[in-house]
Amino acid sequence: MAVTDEIESLHSSFYVNQLRGHALRTDPFSYDRDTYLMEETLPTAELAVGGCLELADKIMAEEINYGFALIRPPGHHAEPGRGMGFCVFNNVALTAKYLLDTYKLRRILIVDFDIHHGNGTQEAFYDSDQVMFLSLHQSSLFPFTGKESETGEEDGRGYTINVPVFSQFGDPEYTYLLGRLLQNLVEQYQPQVILVSAGYDGHIDESISSTLLSTKWFGVATAMLRQAAREVCDNKLLFILEGGYNPVSLEASILETFNSLITKEIPQTGIFPVKRAEKLLAQHPLREFWSI
Ligand SMILES: [Zn+2]
Fold first, then answer.
1. How many whole angstroms separate alpha carbon 102 and alpha carbon 9?
2. Domains of the chain, with CATH numbers?
3. Could you tell me the distance, in angstroms and rounded to a whole number, from the CA of residue 190 to the centre of ligand 1?
4. 186 pLDDT exceeds 70?
5. Mean pLDDT on 39-50
6. Residue 28 confidence (pLDDT) above 90
7. How far is residue 230's CA from residue 14's CA, in Å, rounded to a whole number?
8. How far is the CA of 114 from the centre of ligand 1 (A)?
9. CA Rg value for the chain
10. Using CA of residue 147, residue 149, residue 155, residue 159, what is the dihedral sign?
11. Which pLDDT belongs to residue 79?
């Protein structure tokens, strides 16, 4: 799928041209502290975007209910004017933009459970109420954005929902937070499709974070997302791979997601209050905007 126009609908031509220039170099090149570019980077990143958009088309045509874009490079740190944090193009933001432009959708929910804040996705829709961005991420971790007080601006006020969690949060806290937020926000916002920035780097075996998520939790999260998509948007649910750096836990956790997606009956999840997590929501500024 040719995606140049779609990419430039979000990313600046200055940035895209910069990447084209770097694509001519045969030696690996350090774009920033942790983002490397080489000859194959641009075509690979374009293929990744194309894969997401094709899945979005299939979901909108009701050829499939669920999609999972198993792609690299990841995207949620990429801002309109620059890549960063291993990310070149913002796959999930481009997919949302494509759905808004091509299918005239007006309410898209992006759920980002990568352990890092999706700063690029937040920036892309910070002033819009057409995309609700819900991010659960570990506080005080790269890229050091995603504070609770960042809630959007202009028409977008209230549509950016950051829930920075503490280190040592694990399955019970995450299940409570994601379950409770999904239940309430989905009912009030009524998204037409749910996109997921699926990052697996909050796993207990990942050295990049200090949260304690088990492999099994990613199946639980998937079931909760399926349930939400069934309730409001005819099961339209698209996962897009973000982080995950321990190859063993990454593979097992993605498989857990797949298994949870293909189970005939959606497994029901009990959502039990956990003190530290309850406190986070009780003090959250989003309570000004949404009943949670
Ligand atoms: Zn991450």
1. 12
2. 4-288 (3.40.800.20)
3. 27
4. yes
5. 93
6. no
7. 41
8. 5
9. 18
10. positive
11. 96
Ligand 1 mean position to 138 CA, how many Å? 10
Tens-place pLDDT, residues 236-266: 999 999 999 999 999 999 999 999 999 999 9
Rounded CA separation 241/261 (Å) = 15
Active site residues: 77
CA–CA distance, 220 with 170 (Å, rounded to integer): 13
**Which residues, by Cβ under 5 Å, contact ligand 1, an ion?**
114, 116, 199, 201, 243
Residue 93 pLDDT > 90: yes
Where does residue 47 rank: exposed (0-12), middle (13-18), buried (19+ CB within 10 A)? Answer: middle
**How far apart (Å, rounded) are the C-alpha atoms in residues 100 and 67?**
18
Give the Å distance between the CA of 20 and the centre of ligand 1.
26
pLDDT value for 1: 62
Q: Which residue has the higher pLDDT, 155 or 41?
A: 155
pTM: 0.97
